[in-house]
Amino acid sequence: MKKALKDIDVKGKKVLVRVDYNVPLDANCNITNDKRILATIATIEYLLEQKAAIILISHLGRPKGKVVPEMSLKPVSKKLSELLGEPVKFVGGDCINAESKKAAQGLKSGEILLLENLRFHPEEEGKNAKGEKDKDAMNAFAKELAGMGDVFVQDAFGTVHRSHASTAGIVNYVKDAAAGFLVEKELQFLGEALENPKKPFLAILGGAKVSDKINVIENLLNKVDVIIIGGAMAYTFLKSQGVNVGISLVEDDKLDLATEILKKAKERKVDFLLPIDHIIANKVDFSAKQVPTGAEVKTTIDEVIPEGFMGVDAGPKSIEEFAETVKSAKTIVWNGPLGIFEIDEFSKGTIEIAKLVAEATSDKGTLSVVGGGDSVSAVKKAGVDKKITHISTGGGASLEFLEGKELPGIAALPDKLL
Ligand code: AMP
Predict the structure, then answer these.
(1) Atom of ligand 1 at shortest distance to CA of 375?
(2) 299 and 226 in a common domain
(3) I want to staple 278 with a disulfide (CB 3.0 to 4.6 A). Which of 73, 126, 311, 385 is the partner?
């Protein structure tokens, strides 16, 4: 088990905290969603109580190693200050220049400093000034950052699957390091679900492509009792079994893989549930996110989709069948929508699943972990997000955790002393 914030001495120390302030900005650099900033408040408030001097480090967007003024963290420093009701210093320019170092050096107990976007430096992502991969350059940058504080706290779950200077590198150059409250919570719930699940353990996987989730499916086949597959992924599986899926989104180069997975599921006695009926449409406007005028939308009687139509959501019989499984599960991991969720008319299956997962959690004490942008939006849209045991904040990181991969930013943290 990794060291957590309360396992290390931060009292009166200068604490470097890696946060994920990769927030969405509009054309005028206004923050359009502050949930990532809010998610760090608990760790910051604890550090303030401990009279630490707090140096926050983060990336924002993809400036690709160059200074891009529109990707400055300045608006974040203002927002954070508003949310905390405390001043937040911001130097700007460059996170390791003389001014930033001076600000860090002079930072007093109970003060907060936010450094400028780490990714203005190519070294953050392991490259040198020429854009070539360069581990020495990354380590040198990590060392400079580390030199600004005494101890390091990793609270940016959204980036721990990357091997970057501020995730894996920095830990080697500080006196002590630990997971912040946000990362600790992610590890606790994702870990509990995967390593010690109460049975029956159900995984619900949806979304566009089998290829994106293949490693997750492979890893979960060794752990779960039931898998529900929804979204466009289901059509690749159905087609691999000879079912007509019309013009549904299918990855034809993954048909053999789909057959192979179904075989493995059978061998491992994992119940593999695919939709048994569908909502179908003959036209969908993906870019306008709406049903085009004149489009025909109907419900199939079984899993077969007629020519000229595509599956856009799970049908009512499928939802009924999935509901039984959700109700009896004791652990549920859910990632990915069951239909084209962005279009209201095709979001029903996903919303229903959100409600069912929430009900199982509140009524039966099922442990539920939801990850991935659309599934998280679905539980919010259904108004049941408060009932879910844990909503993961890192899309890519939570998927890699479900794949069973080692996350470099977590692996680098020291183990708890037992
Ligand atoms: P992912 O990022 O892999 O979780 O996939 C999410 C995307 O899958 C969303 O944009 C959905 O609109 C899309 N999706 C889900 N079901 C379908 C479907 N039946 N046909 C096409 N796209 C789908």
Answers:
(1) 4
(2) yes
(3) 311
Residue 287 neighbours by CB distance under 10 Å: 6
- Do 118 and 215 lie in one domain? The reply is no
How many structural domains compose the chain?
2
Q: Minimal CA–CA distance to 310: which of 284, 343, 338, 274?
A: 284
Nearest ligand 1 atom, CA 248:
20
Q: Is 249 in the pocket of ligand 1 (CB under 6 A)?
A: yes
Split at pLDDT 50, 70, 90, the class of 140 is very high
Distance 281 CA to ligand 1 centre (A): 15
Spatial neighbors of 114 by CB under 8 A, at least 6 apart, are: 21, 56, 58, 73, 76, 77, 80, 88, 89, 90
Q: Which of 205, 297, 341 to mutate to test the pocket of ligand 1 (most atoms within 8 A of CB)?
A: 341
Q: 114 with 246, same domain? A: no
Residue 236: its pLDDT value, please?
A: 96
Q: Do residues 148 and 249 both lie within one domain?
A: no
122 and 65 Cβ atoms separated by less than 8 Å: yes
Tell how far the Cα of 278 is from the centroid of ligand 1, in angstroms. 14
CATH number, domain of 297, equals 3.40.50.1260
Whole-prediction pTM: 0.92
Please, which residues have CB within 8 angstroms of residue 293's CB and are 6 or more apart in sequence? none
Mean pLDDT of 21-48: 95
Q: Which residues contact 260 (CB under 8 A, 6 or more apart)?
A: none
Boundaries of domain holding 38: 5-181
Burial of 42 (0-12, 13-18, 19+ CB in 10 A): middle
